[in-house]
């Protein structure tokens, strides 16, 4: 059999509702729209943890965050965890990751030091934008040394060394600015170029490649051309209750934040267009299974917040496009619930390889091909900070476990507090009904479903080998 190439176009912190083909008439994503027209778009795809590291580790391994011991940022990926590219290597695949991977902590290490390969044949890592002496900065040095100063940004908030301070270029979602160097020198352009180069060099053998875009994560700094695409005054305001605004921004300021965030996504879309064109020119499009997704979402002003980490759709619901011409129906939009852990088994399935039993997700290939498929009742989402939690009075920064069904969003925190949103009446999750007597039965049912899923998610190894 001829096994497909696998290309994963992976962004960071991109909400589910940021693709025009999916219904957002305010955003410009022509290349993602074209990809969706030649594939399947999923409207209910959920990460299994709404922060970077556990989501990435889980998605690429097909195991839940708690099963592999990666339940929050700051816990590095174990090198012995089985990931989909390790499964495919014995079947002749050459494997690569270019750009953001985030298997190791990046806020406390020397980025000039070699990075563990984690089984990749090619690994070009740049886990943040413009604040480390890493592969991206070296790429800019080779392209145009005079522009290095213009691509630098202030150190990320978690950086433990001597901070790099670049006034006006902070890692803040609510304070956007314009990229100071030519647009062909952005981190997204770096990822696209390394991916293009990789495809050209390995076009004659099956490959598994990840294009790890850092955007639209902060800093929110699109090139000017993409800033000019948006008139902030035409954009809808975020959804929030009175008194929720943590940053005390005006309506115009919130619209500006959204415009710049959209600008970053449009720039990523432009760079993805370069990659798709290269695949077409190499005659590889029909032989390549392409996935577009992200690790988690972004509030982007909803609930008066920016960032991620809470049990809201803005954090947990992410985009997913899967395209494999001639094998996956084209132009279809699916509303079934799919989890991040389902991606690895699905791709392995399409490669004609048995799905390892350690993987907890399940292939949704039958859904795409019209076969027997039992849709998930819920998506399981978790965030746990081992041996402690942040001392906050609200729901941010604490450990929680939650579920997303078609009708409800539910979460329980480490102090016993519960949240329940009726998505049929309240799609923007503004009214917590966990204390409403009219929802007592729904609250009980969601609690029971969480307990049921919890047993599924627990690591199932080592296996029992005898009666006693």
Q: Describe it for me?
A:
The protein has 468 residues and is α/β, with parallel strands linked by helices. It is 27% helix and 15% strand. Helix 7 (187-201) packs parallel to helix 9 (251-281). The model has no long low-confidence stretch (mean pLDDT 95).
In short:
The chain is an alpha/beta fold and 468 residues long. The chain is built from 13 helices and 13 strands.
Order of helices and strands: EHEHHHEEHHHEHHEHEEEHHEEEEH
Query: Describe the biggest sheet?
Result: 9 strands, mixed
Oligomer: single chain
Distance between the termini: 45 Å
Uncertain residue ranges: none
Secondary structure: number of strands: 13
Portion of residues in beta strands equals: 5-15%
Tag the structure with descriptive keywords.
single chain, 468 residues, alpha/beta, nine-stranded mixed beta sheet, four-stranded antiparallel beta sheet, 13 helices, 13 strands
Could you outline the blueprint of secondary structure elements for this entry?
Elements: E1 5-11, H1 30-37, E2 40-46, H2 52-61, H3 65-68, H4 84-88, E3 94-99, E4 122-125, H5 135-143, H6 148-151, H7 187-201, E5 207-212, H8 224-227, H9 251-281, E6 288-294, H10 313-316, E7 317-323, E8 332-334, E9 338-339, H11 343-350, H12 365-369, E10 379-383, E11 400-404, E12 408-413, E13 418-422, H13 440-457
Parallel strand pairs: 1-5, 1-6, 2-8, 2-9, 3-4, 3-5
Antiparallel strand pairs: 2-7, 6-7, 10-11, 11-12, 12-13
Helix pairs in contact: 7-9
């Amino acid at each position: 059999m001829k096994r497909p190439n696998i290309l994963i176009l992976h962004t960071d912190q991109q909400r589910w509702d940021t693709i025009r083909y999916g219904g957002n008439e305010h955003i410009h994503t022509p290349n993602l729209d074209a990809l969706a027209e030649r594939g399947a778009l999923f409207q209910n795809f959920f990460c299994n943890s709404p922060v970077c590291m556990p989501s990435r580790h889980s998605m690429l391994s097909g195991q839940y965050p708690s099963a592999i011991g990666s339940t929050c940022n700051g816990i590095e990926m174990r090198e012995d965890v089985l990931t989909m590219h390790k499964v495919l290597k014995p079947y002749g695949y050459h494997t690569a990751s270019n750009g953001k991977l985030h298997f190791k902590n990046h806020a406390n290490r020397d980025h000039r030091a070699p990075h563990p390969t984690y089984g990749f044949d090619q690994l070009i890592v740049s886990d943040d934008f413009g604040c480390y002496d890493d592969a991206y900065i070296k790429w800019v040095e080779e392209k145009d040394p005079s522009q290095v100063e213009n691509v630098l940004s202030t150190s990320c908030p978690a950086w433990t060394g001597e901070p790099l301070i670049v006034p006006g270029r902070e890692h803040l979602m609510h304070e956007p600015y314009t990229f100071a160097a030519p647009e062909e020198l952005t981190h997204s352009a770096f990822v696209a170029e390394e991916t293009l180069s990789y495809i050209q060099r390995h076009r004659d053998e099956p490959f598994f490649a990840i294009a790890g875009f850092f955007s639209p994560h902060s800093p929110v700094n699109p090139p000017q051309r993409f800033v000019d695409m948006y008139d902030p005054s035409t954009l809808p305001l975020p959804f929030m209750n009175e008194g929720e605004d943590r940053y005390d921004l005006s309506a115009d300021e919130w619209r500006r934040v959204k415009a710049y965030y959209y600008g970053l996504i449009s720039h990523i879309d432009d760079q993805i267009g370069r990659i798709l064109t290269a695949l077409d020119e190499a005659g590889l499009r029909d032989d390549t299974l392409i996935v577009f997704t992200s690790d988690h979402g972004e509030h982007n002003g909803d609930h008066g917040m920016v960032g991620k980490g809470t049990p809201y759709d803005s954090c947990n619901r992410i985009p997913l496009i899967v395209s494999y011409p001639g094998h996956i129906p084209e132009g279809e939009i699916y509303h079934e619930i799919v989890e991040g852990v389902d991606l690895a088994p699905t791709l392995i399935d399409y490669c004609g390889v048995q799905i390892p039993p350690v993987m907890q997700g399940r292939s949704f290939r039958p859904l795409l091909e019209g076969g027997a498929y039992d849709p998930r009742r819920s998506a399981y989402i978790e965030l746990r900070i081992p041996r402690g939690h942040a001392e906050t009075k609200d729901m941010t920064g604490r450990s929680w476990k939650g579920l997303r069904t078609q009708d409800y969003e539910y979460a329980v925190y480490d102090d016993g507090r519960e949240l329940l949103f009726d998505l049929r009446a309240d799609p923007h999750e503004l009214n917590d009904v966990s204390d409403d007597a009219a929802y007592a039965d729904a609250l009980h049912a969601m609690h029971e479903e969480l307990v049921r899923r919890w047993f599924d998610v627990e690591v199932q190894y080592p296996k029992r080998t005898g009666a006693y």
